[in-house]
Amino acid sequence: MPDDLIHDETAGIERLLEIMRRLRDPDTGCPWDIEQDFDTIAPYTIEEAYEVADAIARRDWPELEGELGDLLLQSVYHTAIGSEAGHFTFQSVVRNISNKMVARHPHVFGDESREKSADQQTADWEAIKATERAEKFQQGALDGVAIGLPALLRAYKLQKRAARVGFDWPDTSDVIAKIQEEAAELVEARDTLTPAEQFEEFGDLMFVMANLGRHLGIEPEAALRAANAKFTRRFSGVEEKLRKIGKTPQESDLTEMDALWDAVKADEKAAKS
């Protein structure tokens, strides 16, 4: 088969589709690629989405370009598998999302007025999505919240859905009071209950913490990613300060490292001023 399309750098998405078709060819393709299915590729899809988010958080635009390509490849991979099984094609996937975006933006592609507040547009969007769920026979308020989401993000979305139908604390202070209650229960569980009960109480506390984030307008998954990045940055700073005095963390102790941690924080504060 001629390789003109494979090597045509101007061919765009058609080139990538042909590359995937060749990789999955049962006679001449790559043995590893041929063996893959939806289940084996799904973890890579999740990983690539997080790498996109990481590049954005680091404002690394060249890296983001590459990561977006990796994420696009995941869509091409899944659609190739779906096409081979007769479920759908790349073109039907594109048609489906295009139709969805047109339907969800009647104020852009239809005859509805664009003179709406952001809150009204959000309400309209949710109403359209509710209609779509009803057409899929998803009647419950929580139907359609993907099980495969990271647990913290899924908790946030579940609570957001419940709040839309009135199942929510009216004030942030109520959520904080619930956090205090769950924290006390976790302390009790630590001292008197079984590991399974401790596990449950810890989950309850995490769930309410996600709800507090929603009340404060903070997406908890993003906030925790930022906290992870900050911890990584500061601990690396501690390690660097230890290296300057000829030590490793294993050769230090908590008192010394805690003091160096405070020094790293002071350095960051000074750099911002």
From TrEMBL:
Catalyzed reactions per annotation: ATP + H2O = AMP + diphosphate + H(+)
EC numbers on record: 3.6.1.8
InterPro entries registered for this protein in UniProt: MazG-like_dom, NTP-PPase_MazG-like_C, NTP-PPase_MazG-like_N, NTP_PyrPHydrolase_MazG, PRib-ATP_PPHydrolase-like
Annotated ranges, domain NTP pyrophosphohydrolase MazG-like: 36-109
Alphabetical GO biological process terms: dATP catabolic process; dGTP catabolic process; dTTP catabolic process; dUTP catabolic process; response to stress; TTP catabolic process; UTP catabolic process
Pfam families the record matches: MazG, PRA-PH
Family designation: Belongs to the nucleoside triphosphate pyrophosphohydrolase family.
Name of the protein this chain belongs to: Nucleoside triphosphate pyrophosphohydrolase
Species whose genome carries this gene: Sulfitobacter guttiformis
